[in-house]
Design goal:
Blueprint (H helix, E strand, L loop, with lengths): L15 E10 L5 E7 L18 H4 L23 H12 L6 E10 L4 E3 L5 E4 L2 H14 L2 H4 L27 H12 L4 H9 L2 E5 L2 E2 L22 E3 L10 H14 L4 E3 L12 H8 L2 E6 L1 E3 L6 E4 H16 L4
Parallel strand pairs: 6-10, 7-11, 8-9
Antiparallel strand pairs: 1-2, 1-3, 4-5, 5-12, 8-10, 11-12
Helix pairs in contact: 3-9, 7-9
Length: 329
């Protein structure tokens, strides 16, 4: 099955493998989970030769999700691999007897490592920069010694399933973050009124990557809202609240950027194209916390190989440090 909205054509002719977790019965007959990664190329989605698809360069590569996306693991006489074949692979990789494995959650990933590129190595490319780059920046800022000693109550929340609507026990539309914040308040011996006041005085940065201007496709962008690689974090604005940004939260983020000596940019999607969203509006509405949606510029969002700017990542860490701890510069 296809998860979320990837650019499916970018998965062809790549050195793919599998990663995820298995659930199995241990020696005490309990059900436990174990992470599994096949650290070698295991799968492939070969393209159809140009001789059999003459229109591919004019019409683009179109793959039927049911019939043309099954990945090739091996070639056997039968079209379908027997269950025992895959179970043996799982056993070899996990070290768990095949008969004890009850279920698994596995996803395809690209085995190619990340790389710097460009004349001055000013860009970097990897899979899932949207949105692991924002998660890394936030965690780097949070774990800074000066930030941790600031005296503020600091939270980084990393959610699953944002690409498919966030409706799960691990998604932003679930109760997890609310429950954790309430438990922090209870541990601090705050009552319900104290908790409500704390939320009203809090602020949230919703960080998710932004669309960098790609000069080969100028008509995909609003001409007055182009954002450029390595020119700083992007403040994302949408009149229909697909982003959580409003004028006050925008002004506060601009102020933090200026205090941190970080450049910033502003982005609005073309009004005749459907605008994506983030977990910002969901979380802000659930908690009643003022929020701003920001992100670093990114090329090829949802491709198996995305690209971003090296300087922008450092800029985002700096402004998040300023936000978390109001650090002296």
């Amino acid at each position: 099955e296809v998860y979320g909205g990837p650019i499916i054509a970018t998965f062809t002719d790549r050195d793919l493998s599998l990663a995820g977790r298995i659930s199995y019965k241990d020696d005490q007959n309990g059900i436990v989970s174990q992470l599994v990664t096949f650290d070698r190329p295991l799968l492939r989605l070969p393209n159809l030769a140009i001789h059999m698809n003459r229109a591919v360069n004019d019409e683009g590569l179109k793959l039927h999700k049911q019939n043309e996306l099954p990945l090739i693991l091996s070639v056997l006489a039968d079209e379908c691999l027997p269950q025992a074949y895959f179970s043996e692979l799982m056993q070899q990789q996990s070290g768990c007897d095949a008969e004890r494995i009850l279920s698994w959650d596995l996803a395809v990933y690209d085995t190619q490592k990340g790389a710097f590129w460009g004349g001055n190595s000013e860009f970097y490319a990897n899979s899932q920069l949207d949105n692991l780059a924002s998660c890394h920046a936030a965690l780097q800022a949070l774990l800074d010694d000066a930030v941790l000693e600031s005296g503020n109550t600091l939270v980084c929340a990393f959610f699953d399933h944002e690409e498919i609507g966030s409706e799960s026990n691990k998604g932003a539309d679930g109760s997890f973050l609310t429950d954790v914040l309430q438990r922090i308040a209870l541990a601090s011996k705050d009552n319900r009124e104290d908790f409500a006041r704390t939320l009203a005085q809090s602020f949230m940065i919703s960080a998710d990557m932004a669309h960098a201007y790609q000069p080969n496709f100028p008509l995909a962008y609003d001409p007055d809202h182009k954002v450029t690689m390595n020119k700083g974090p992007v403040i994302k604005v949408n009149a229909n609240h697909r982003y959580s940004t409003e004028s006050v939260s925008q002004a506060m983020f601009v102020d933090w950027c200026e205090q941190a000596g970080v450049p910033y940019q502003k982005y609005s999607h073309r009004s005749d194209l459907a605008c994506g969203s983030t977990i910002g509006p969901i979380t802000s509405a659930r908690l009643g916390i003022r929020s701003v949606d920001v992100g670093n510029p990114l090329w090829a969002m949802h491709s198996i190989r995305e690209s971003a700017g090296v300087l922008d990542h450092g800029y985002m860490i700096r402004v998040m440090k300023r936000f978390f701890g109001k650090l002296p510069l």
